[in-house]
Design a protein that fits this description.
Strand content of chain B: over 45%
Helix content of chain A: under 10%
Largest sheet of chain A: 7 strands, mixed
Distance between the termini of chain B: 36 Å
Shape of chain A: globular
Order of helices and strands of chain A: EEEEEEEEEEE
Oligomer: heterodimer
Order of helices and strands of chain B: EEEEEEEEEEE
Structural class of chain B: mainly beta
Largest sheet of chain B: 7 strands, mixed
Strand content of chain A: over 45%
Helix content of chain B: under 10%
Number of strands of chain A: 11
Radius of gyration of chain B: 13 Å
Chain lengths: 116, 109
């Protein structure tokens, strides 16, 4: 069945970068997009961006456009999200999700903590 | 940007009763709407897509309706496991600019 396995928790200092991975299995990798969604502690869901593993096309939410880079590795069915110039309010759970319109499968989430 | 507004923020309902959650879009999104359930400590789970189609494995007590700007998620007879937070999401310009509502917390009355 479809499974998305994310990398482990990260602790970073303000101004640093973080790179989170999401390894997919159980489906044809290039047939679906991968979206990234974050959730700050006690808050709602916020869409960060999307990548098409077939051609590498990306789209990022306006507020992250100058700080985020999404990539994929087709040889390992893995998507990556790199967020740069971290601030304390980037502390959140970051989820990847299989996307075709709706998000029908989700990873377990990766906690990124930004603290000095 | 399309803004999604959910109401109410919190809904208190007794087990066995019906719950009705609302979601409004700031402009027409046709039927390009999904609903998700998130239990504490878990990732969100897709319940409904295309406004009214149940996702695989979702019980029939969950139903979605609406189109354009007004949408509803109905849970016909609440079970204990249904008390959670529910989010709507639009994907009208997929794959561009998805947006979520702020969520409705469904709690036990």
């Amino acid at each position: 069945q479809v499974h998305l396995e994310q990398s482990g928790a990260e602790v970073k200092k303000p101004g640093a970068s973080v790179k989170v991975s999401c390894k997919a299995s159980g489906y044809t990798w290039t047939s679906y997009g991968i979206s990234w969604v974050r959730q700050a502690p006690g808050q709602g869901l916020e869409w960060v961006g999307w990548i098409n593993p077939y051609n590498g096309l990306t789209d990022y939410a306006q507020k992250f456009r100058d700080r985020v880079i999404m990539t994929t590795d087709t040889s390992t069915n893995t998507a990556y999200m790199e967020l740069r110039t971290l601030k304390s309010d980037d502390t959140a759970l970051y989820y990847c999700a299989r996307a075709r319109g709706e998000f029908d499968s989700w990873g377990q989430g990766t906690l990124v903590t930004v603290s000095s | 940007e399309i803004v999604m507004t959910q109401s109410p923020a919190t809904l208190s309902v007794s087990p066995g009763e019906r719950a009705t959650l609302s979601c409004r879009a700031s402009q027409s999104i046709s039927s390009n709407l999904a609903w998700y359930q998130q239990r504490p400590g878990q990732a969100p789970r897709l319940l409904i897509y295309d406004a009214s189609t149940r996702a695989t494995g979702i019980p029939a007590r969950f139903s979605g309706s609406g189109s354009g700007t007004e949408f509803t998620l109905t849970i016909s007879s609440l079970q204990s496991e249904d008390f959670a937070v529910y989010y709507c999401q639009q994907y009208n310009n997929w794959p561009l600019a998805y947006t979520f509502g702020q969520g409705t917390k469904l709690e036990i009355k």
